Amino acid sequence: MSTADREAILVNQQAILARFGELALRSDDLDEILTEACRLVAEALQTDMAKVMELQKDRITLVVRAGVGWPPGVVGVAKVRAERGSSEGYALQTGKPAISPDIANETRFRYSQFIVDAGVKALITS
């Protein structure tokens, strides 16, 4: 990738971040803000899907709070447990992202059925 290409990507990402900041300042609807964050992350990373998961009071269950690109019945419904062996558990326990470039061949983590059913091929959990 050329320097010009890297600079163009950085400028685009900065513009996306600025648009998000504007929305966050004018909206008091957290669901709208989180959904827009998902949309902008998907745009910046050039991916079809993004999600925000909310940790529940039991400190182990996560619910898909907001998202874009997911099939019906995922956002607001799908749950995962942040346990040992899950990418969510790894990210929460270590504070580091769990990056899986090919979940079909991933040996470190297991994935929730809603992720597999949605056709996810690669995943970053942070």
In brief, what are we looking at here?
With 126 residues, the protein is α+β, with helices and mostly antiparallel strands.
What does the model show?
- By secondary structure, the protein is of the alpha+beta class.
- The protein is 42% helix and 18% strand.
- It has helices at residues 3-26, 30-45, 87-94, 113-117, and strands at residues 50-55, 61-68, 79-81, 98-100, 123-125.
- The protein contains four helices and five strands, in the order H-H-E-E-E-H-E-H-E.
- It has a three-stranded antiparallel sheet. It has a two-stranded antiparallel ribbon with strand order 4-5.
- It has two domains: 1-46; 48-126, no CATH class.
Give the arrangement of secondary structure elements:
Elements: H1 3-26, H2 30-45, E1 50-55, E2 61-68, E3 79-81, H3 87-94, E4 98-100, H4 113-117, E5 123-125
Helix pairs in contact: 1-2
Sheet with most strands: 3 strands, antiparallel
Mean pLDDT score: 92
SS-derived structural category: alpha+beta
Uncertain residue segments: none
Spatially, the strands of the biggest sheet line up as: 1-2-3
* Global morphology: globular
The total of beta strands comes to: 5
Computed CA radius of gyration, to the nearest angstrom: 16 Å
Q: Kindly, what is the distance between the CA atoms of the first and last residues, rounded to a whole number of angstroms? A: 26 Å
Percentage of residues in helical conformation = 40-55%
Number of domain units: 2
User: Oligomeric form of this entry?
Assistant: single chain
Order of helices and strands: HHEEEHEHE
List the total number of helices. Answer: 4
Strand content: 15-25%
